[in-house]
Specification:
Structural class: mainly beta
Largest sheet: 5 strands, mixed
Helix content: under 10%
Number of helices: 0
Strand order of the largest sheet: 8-15-14-10-12
Radius of gyration: 28 Å
Distance between the termini: 105 Å
């Protein structure tokens, strides 16, 4: 129309994943427009739907409704092997294995090692590719860790590699990669 429109307030039908950042009343000149700013904070990997209600001084449509839709994205952790089992290794011999941390979700997965050293010196972190932590893995992205087991005693041995995983903003989970192996006597050859 030709007159200014006064927005009295905004409202949401559910307000679960969406919130209105600025719900103050304001006037919009004829032929002009205004922005409504939302905050979207999904808590799971799903589609969210809500309805925005605009309350105004429009005589024909004092309450206008508009659908709003958002897709919650989340990273999903996948480990190639947990626990990672080195099997039986002779004392002072060494074996390396790789552990791949992948993101099988549709959002960013942040992987942060709590330490770059392992809980047991018989196990060592040889390399991590690519780059340095924290690792922000895009969907289908991965990081590959190479770990070594060099037993110094006979018997079962374990270590943990603690990680903090963030599947979406505001959510973090502590977990660990578990490494196991068994130190065995070195084989001797009789003359």
């Amino acid at each position: 129309g030709n007159a200014a429109l006064t927005i009295n307030r905004y409202g949401l039908k559910y307000g679960t994943a969406f919130s209105i950042v600025d719900s103050s009343s304001h006037s919009i000149a004829a032929g002009d427009s205004a922005q409504v700013t939302f905050k979207f904070l999904p808590v799971s990997n799903t589609t969210y739907k809500d309805t925005l209600f605009i309350y105004s001084n429009d005589e024909l449509t004092p309450v206008s409704a508009t659908a709003i839709i958002g897709l919650g994205t989340a990273g999903v952790l996948r480990l190639s092997a947990n626990p990672t089992n080195f099997g039986s290794i002779g004392l002072t011999h060494s074996q390396t294995m790789t552990v791949t941390i992948s993101n099988n979700g549709n959002g960013i997965l942040t992987v942060t090692p709590n330490s770059l050293s392992l809980s047991n010196p018989d196990f060592t972190l040889v390399s991590v590719k690519p780059g340095t932590p924290p690792y922000n893995l895009a969907p289908k992205g991965s990081v590959v860790s190479t770990v070594a087991f060099t037993p110094t005693k006979i018997g079962a041995d374990t270590a943990t590699f603690p990680l903090t995983i963030s599947e979406y903003e505001g959510n973090s989970i502590d977990t660990s990669i578990v490494l196991i192996g068994t130190g065995i006597p070195n084989a001797s050859v009789d003359p």
